[in-house]
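Page 37, continued from 36.
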């Protein structure tokens, strides 16, 4: 169902097109079989091309991601586009506020888009501080509800930072102090973010510009936002926009395709695991084919209803031979799908109906063996500290707990 129908702002659409320099569409055959089958699927379900020549750098927690992002903003010369779900009014939020204000003071074009519900995770809302500092900011889909709602739908859950149209950051990380583990915050949260350089940056920029125009009716264009982009690395990548609009179901089709072509290993890292029956079946079929399927979930979730609902359906993947590992605190908010250590999907989406059907998300599919090995090392480190769950353990839960989890599972389409 198309829940959001975007209206054009009446401005020339060619202003939104990225510059063509350096963008070389890749052929599916370049990534080799069986991943070429997945690339061909992407050509049919996604309008954006597969692009060669990208560099994708994993950034662990805010300790690695935030310094790189702040340095990029401080080095900006022409434009900064920032989209986030949560922008807290805390030490981290104030650092980004100061960096954005400095960029505006240098004459850089800055635009900040924050989800209207995500802004309510701190008070007063951070957009007021941004406006006082002269930073152009907008709320995505404002709502009249007077409080934050963790289960609100039709939200912009994308995390994007694009500087000068040349360097981008995306992944699962919001702007909040909890991600800065070195500061020992009160509520620590692990996460995984990614730096992106190369032609794929133009596609991330186009997504930001499209969301900004939808929200404000202002079209952004020109080389300050879309410069020519040379190749910067070996990663073949495609940006996937997903949401309850014209981009509906693209990430879900990509997940199903990736599970279908896996031959050796599948690693799923997600904080919220409420897949629909088709995805549960695809995970089970992969395991039955002999693929090693590992699912990493946080042992202590920050949303109890989601944890209870997930526990109520874990038996379906365990029964087919998948392995489930519970990672110890701090809560792990990372999102990653890794197939055969040669293909990865990174971005903002969780394995739940809100991400895959009800919210606006972004993903980047990456084809590269070296990146795959590095991500496999990150997954292995998480798995070595985790505790594996058995089917017998789930069956041994008290009846009251199983009833509670089953009732929570009935709510899973809305969690």
């Amino acid at each position: 169902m198309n829940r959001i129908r975007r209206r054009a702002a009446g401005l020339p659409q060619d202003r939104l097109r990225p510059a063509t320099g350096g963008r070389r569409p890749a052929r599916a055959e370049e990534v080799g079989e069986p991943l070429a089958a997945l690339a061909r699927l992407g050509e049919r379900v996604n309008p954006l091309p597969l692009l060669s020549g990208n560099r994708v750098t994993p950034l662990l927690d805010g300790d690695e991601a935030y310094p790189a992002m702040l340095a990029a903003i401080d080095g900006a010369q022409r434009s900064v586009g920032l989209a986030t779900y949560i922008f807290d009014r805390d030490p981290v939020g104030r650092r980004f506020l100061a960096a954005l204000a400095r960029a505006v003071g240098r004459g850089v074009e800055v635009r900040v888009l924050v989800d209207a519900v995500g802004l309510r995770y701190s008070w007063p809302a951070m957009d007021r501080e941004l406006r006082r500092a002269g930073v152009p900011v907008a709320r995505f889909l404002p709502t009249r509800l007077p409080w934050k709602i963790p289960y609100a739908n039709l939200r912009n859950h994308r995390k994007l930072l694009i500087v000068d149209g040349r360097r981008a950051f995306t992944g699962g990380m919001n702007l909040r102090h909890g991600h800065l583990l070195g500061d020992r915050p009160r509520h620590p949260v692990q996460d995984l973010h990614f730096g992106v350089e190369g032609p794929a940056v133009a596609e991330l920029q186009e997504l930001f510009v499209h969301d900004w125009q939808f929200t404000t009716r202002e079209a952004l264009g020109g080389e300050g936002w879309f410069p020519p982009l040379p190749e910067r690395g070996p990663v073949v990548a495609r940006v996937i926009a997903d949401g309850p609009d014209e981009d509906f179901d693209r990430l879900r089709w990509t997940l199903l395709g990736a599970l279908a072509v896996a031959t050796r290993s599948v690693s799923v890292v997600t904080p919220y695991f409420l897949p629909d029956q088709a995805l549960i079946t695809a995970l089970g079929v992969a395991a039955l084919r002999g693929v090693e399927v590992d699912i990493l979930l946080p042992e202590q979730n920050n949303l109890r209803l989601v944890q209870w609902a997930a526990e109520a359906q874990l038996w379906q993947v365990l029964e087919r031979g998948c392995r489930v590992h519970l990672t110890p605190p701090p809560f792990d908010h990372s999102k990653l799908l890794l197939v055969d250590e040669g293909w990865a999907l990174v971005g903002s989406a969780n394995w739940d109906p809100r991400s895959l059907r009800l919210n606006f998300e972004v993903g980047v599919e990456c084809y590269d063996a070296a990146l795959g090995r590095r991500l496999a090392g990150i997954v292995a480190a998480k798995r070595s500290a985790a505790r594996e769950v058995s089917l017998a353990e789930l069956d041994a839960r008290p009846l009251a707990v199983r009833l509670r989890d089953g009732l929570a599972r009935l709510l899973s389409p809305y969690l």
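The chain has twelve helices and 17 strands. Flag for discussion at group meeting. The two ends are 18 Å apart (CA to CA).
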